[in-house]
Input
Amino acid sequence: MISFNVGEFGIVLTRKIVLGIFLSIVLIFTIYLKLDFNGHHHHHGDIRPVNVTWNDFLEECGREAFDEYGMPRLIQCKKKYSERTVMNWRGRFFIIENELI
Output
């Protein structure tokens, strides 16, 4: 228990209150670090393009390819697509909006 006086006003803090305040500060700081408040894009270094279609990606790295070839295929996909920018996904983009009825 921590207690101190500020003039006529006294404050008493238990370990539970101090721990709660400390954990709240850590949580707020962690959320602040994880969120991108400035809207910056996280491009680190040069853009390394990959020109593939969605079907190409699914054939190489989809569930069926992983089931058939296992971990070596996953490693191959990680090497090919990790830290790369897909410049031209050819396909359709759909927007799904949920409306309350």
